[in-house]
Q: What sequence folds into this?
């Protein structure tokens, strides 16, 4: 797998009509998006040092960046919705929000909107003026990304200095099916070492992968989504948190990321609890390979 680009670098290609420009954050539904991902950008107007960013209104999971450098993750389900940040005037404060699905029981089904459903604050001050990008990671968009964007010359993801998070990024790989009768066949995508994201083959959405959460470690790949030999099949991963590559403190190298297509599903693996994993990640010490 090779780096295609970071999500911040692809905002113009992943958004149909440019950003919505608003005084306060709007929900996904208010910008005519029902699922997937939405990207919020605020240009910082004051200098902030060790300030408390409050994103209590996140639905459901938000990746906070300052000038593309990860600051941490805010999570609705764990009430982990505050981060300590330092941001300077003119920098971009970005929040990539993932809609993790709709509540389908109890009182939670009411007003079940997604994205940022209320204001974001720093030290209690409401942040005003936002650019909102509803992201469209569809077959048509993936197939039309410029080949130049897919080269190694793309700006690499930034590596957080306080955790193992990277800038959310798109990675791409290509593979041919065997030149044998009966191929392609149904197969399974295994993403050991990758952290959390979305997988697409030939533009077809395979679903979410999250091997550190488990217990499912593979995604089903129907043979109908694959192209027979000699055609090339293109796999794209939208990785949100961590790629299994060699790292430096400022950037990651992207030459050593790989996945596997396997014949047997793994749907009942033993995994580390999410709570424990989040503790390790906040401490900068989580290593997927140490736990498997």
A:
């Amino acid at each position: 797998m090779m780096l295609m680009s970071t999500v911040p670098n692809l905002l113009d290609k992943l958004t149909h009509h440019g950003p919505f420009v608003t005084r306060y954050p709007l929900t996904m539904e208010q910008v005519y998006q029902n699922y997937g991902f939405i990207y919020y950008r605020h240009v910082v107007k004051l200098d902030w040092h060790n300030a408390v960013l409050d994103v209590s209104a996140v639905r459901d999971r938000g990746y906070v960046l300052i000038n593309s450098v990860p600051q941490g993750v805010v999570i609705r389900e764990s009430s982990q919705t505050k981060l300590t940040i330092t941001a300077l005037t003119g920098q971009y404060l970005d929040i990539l929000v993932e809609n993790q699905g709709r509540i389908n029981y109890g009182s939670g089904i009411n007003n079940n909107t997604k994205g940022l459903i209320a204001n974001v604050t720093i030290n209690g001050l409401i942040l005003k003026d936002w650019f909102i990008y509803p992201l469209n990671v569809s077959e048509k968009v993936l197939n039309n990304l410029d080949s130049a964007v897919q080269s190694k010359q793309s700006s690499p993801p930034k590596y957080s200095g306080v955790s193992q998070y990277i800038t959310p990024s798109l990675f791409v790989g290509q593979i041919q099916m065997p030149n044998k009768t009966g191929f392609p066949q149904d197969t399974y995508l295994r993403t050991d070492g990758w952290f959390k994201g979305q997988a697409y083959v030939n533009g077809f959405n395979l679903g979410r992968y999250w091997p550190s959460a488990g217990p499912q470690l593979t995604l089903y790949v129907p043979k109908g989504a694959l192209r027979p030999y000699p055609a090339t099949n293109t796999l794209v991963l939208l990785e949100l948190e961590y790629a299994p590559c060699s790292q430096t403190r400022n950037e990651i190298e992207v030459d050593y990321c790989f996945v596997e297509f396997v014949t047997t599903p793994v749907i009942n693996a033993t995994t580390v609890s999410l709570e424990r994993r989040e503790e390790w990640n906040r401490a900068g010490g989580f290593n997927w390979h140490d736990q498997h």
Observations:
- The chain has a mean pLDDT of 87.
- The chain is about 5% helix and 35% strand.
- The CA atoms of residues 129 and 205 lie 33 Å apart.
